[in-house]
Amino acid sequence: MPRTLASAPIMVLNGPNLNLLGQRQPEIYGSDTLADVETLCAKRAAAYGGTVDFRQSNHEGELVEWIHEARLNHAGIVINPAAYSHTSVAILDALNTCDGLPVVEVHISNIHQREQFRHHSYVSLRADGVIAGCGVQGYAFAVERVATLVGAERTEA
């Protein structure tokens, strides 16, 4: 049964090294911290009457466990799998268990302007949308897209 933003949060998952956002390669990823991104996502979800469940892990298995949790308790998933985008069939398989749950993949940098190995994402095979190269603002776009996919209407300007 589809969940609404009124009944379930959007899970926002962040992969490896994103805990260092604002410190690691600011010329690529900018100066905003992961806490700044969480605030941005919470504000965008609130504009649609929703909330976010915001998490980060450097461990693939933990991300898989959280995806399993999301399939039961969340309205949708926004995921920045970071380097796992290019390597993790396990994350793809976990996302494939989320029948009917909107999934939007987000990348801070434009992965298509970077090294060749970054051009392929396993996660994209399941994602309902992919946002790349918009900086941390891409997270706000991703939250808004999930809200739209679950039928939420904007309640705030």
SSE map:
Elements: E1 10-14, H1 26-29, H2 34-46, E2 52-56, H3 60-73, E3 76-80, H4 89-95, E4 103-107, E5 129-132, H5 137-149
Parallel strand pairs: 1-2, 1-3, 3-4, 4-5
Helix pairs in contact: 2-5, 3-4
Describe this structure in words.
The chain has 157 residues and is α/β, with parallel strands linked by helices. It has a single domain, classed as 3-Layer(aba) Sandwich (Rossmann fold). 32% of the residues lie in helices and 15% in strands. It has helices at residues 26-29, 34-46, 60-73, 89-95, 137-149, and strands at residues 10-14, 52-56, 76-80, 103-107, 129-132. A five-stranded parallel β-sheet has the order 2-1-3-4-5, sandwiched between helices. Helix 3 (60-73) packs parallel to helix 4 (89-95). The longest helix has 14 residues, at 60-73. The protein is globular. The mean pLDDT is 90.
What's a quick, concise take on this entry?
The chain is an alpha/beta fold. Helices cover 32% and strands 15% of the residues.
Under CATH, the homologous superfamily reads Dehydroquinase, class II
Q: Tell me the name of the CATH class.
A: Alpha Beta
- Please, how many domains? 1
Taking pLDDT < 50 over at least 5 consecutive residues as the criterion, the unreliable ranges are: none
Report the total helices: 5
Percentage of residues assigned to helices: 25-40%
Give me the CATH fold name: Rossmann fold
Straight-line N-to-C gap: 29 Å
Global shape: globular
Order of helices and strands: EHHEHEHEEH
Q: Rg, please? A: 14 Å
